[in-house]
Structures are given as C-alpha cells and as structure tokens.
Amino acid sequence: MALIVPPVTNLKQRALTRSDGEHTMFPTVVALRDDRVLCVVTSPRTAVTLACAHTLAVGLAPQALALAAKVQLDDGGEAISYTVMSRERSAGFAVQPYAVREGSLLFGTPEKGTPHDRGLMDELARAMSHAPLDATRVSRKDGADSAANPSFLPEDEGRMALDSGTCASLQSKVAGVQGTTLYLARDGEHATRLLAHGMPKEVLLR
Q1: Global pTM?
Q2: DSSP label of 137
Q3: Lesser CB count within 10 Å: N end or C end of the chain?
C-alpha cells in the first residue's frame, strides 16, 4: 500500500483541478514490479479498466496489480478503495477516506476493510492467473533466419520490447474512452531505450 497510495492520491488531486469540469477520479489499475509502481491505466469505465488488468498481467509480468476507485461510505462520505492482488494471488482490500476543504483534498489513512462485492477481486485474480510472456523469448525483428531457428533479444531488451508493446496496446484500448496509460521509466537512459522499442511518447514518464 505504501507504494500504491501516493500515485493514486496524486491522480485524485489532479482530477480536482481539471479544467473541463469533470473532477471524478476514474477507476485506475496500478501495476507493480520490482517493488515500484511501473504502470498506471485509468479510464471512466470500470469494465474497460479491469480488462486492462489482463493485458498488464501478461505483458508486464507484474508482482501485483491494484484497482483504485472512488466509493461512497456508509456515513455519506467519500473514499478511495484499493483492491490488491499479488502474483501468488494473495489479496488485500483497503479504504482511504478523503474530504474536500476549500478546494483542497484532505486524505485519511488507508484502513483494511472487507469488500462489499468480491467481483473486482475475483477479476484481478483471474488476470494474475495468466502466465506472463517470457522476456527471454522475444524474437529479434531483423535477426531471425527462420521461424524454426529464431534469434532472440537479450532479456533486458526483450523486457523493454514487451513493456513497450503492452503499453502501446493499452493506450490504443483506452484512448477511445478518454482513458490514459502511463509508464514510469527508471531514468532517462531507460526512457530513451524504451522509445527505441516503440514505447509511445505520450505514455512515457521519467
């Protein structure tokens, strides 16, 4: 949760200052790998956002996925719910209340809870049950002599090719419903190498 909460609350803060009058934080799926937030996909439709979880699980080989969404509390207040699923399919659920005061957001501490509807958790579990693509088996575009005897990219290059292709696919999927895909590169060099593997510029963050 310590890794997931900061980018989600940042998205909520950004939603509050949108100029188009839409201030709702869209349902958002967060992918973690190597103990850092790697990719965030958000769209106004929960079904579309959840469908992206399957693509993330296969293409990015995340250690965990989390779905963050706005919810109403029993007392009439508002909160962000976090539904988390690990690769080992260990699940978690937490709720973080918030309030708007004079145009600013005040966030409470996320607290462990019990989901009213396990459908989201079950869908994340189904996504994480998919075997991820193997980064050691990515064919080199210009180096394969035949389908039976391909030449593969080194693992780190294969990983970047898979990440780039996955994010391009996700951005294409959510763009039509005003969604967004964001990928966080480790540093400038990593970002440059990702671009060479086809990572869309509008997706890439440093």
Answers
A1: 0.90
A2: G
A3: C
